[in-house]
Amino acid sequence: MRKWWKRLRFIVKIRRFAPFLLEFFRSREVPMRKKAFSVFLLLAYVAFPFDLIPDWLGLFGIIDDITVLLFILQQIIKMAPSHLKNKYGV
Fold it and tell me: What angle, 0 to 180 degrees and rounded to 10, lies between the N-to-C axes of helices 14-26 and 2-12?
């Protein structure tokens, strides 16, 4: 659970997370299939308008969108090579 909170704080600090994402996708150590899977998850999230909670319910509708996005970003962090995680303190 503690590791999850550490990753969540890292994602929220976008100044550190954006360079991490750029380096993740540019890295030759990350297999192309992992990069493609990450892009597929992000595109599927954007392309499919299915929501667990409809957005017209205000704050509650946005919470499920944020949850799904954070889950996808967590998976990207898990797939990153260890030296990249160490470099950015994840």
Answer: 90
- Report the distance separating Cα 27 and Cα 7, nearest Å: 20
CA angle 86, 89, 90 (to 5 degrees): 90
pTM for this structure? 0.75
**Res 49 pLDDT > 70:** no
Q: Provide the residue ranges of all domains of the chain, joining segments of one domain with +.
A: 2-88
In this predicted structure, which of 13-17, 53-57, 83-87 has the lowest mean pLDDT? Answer: 53-57
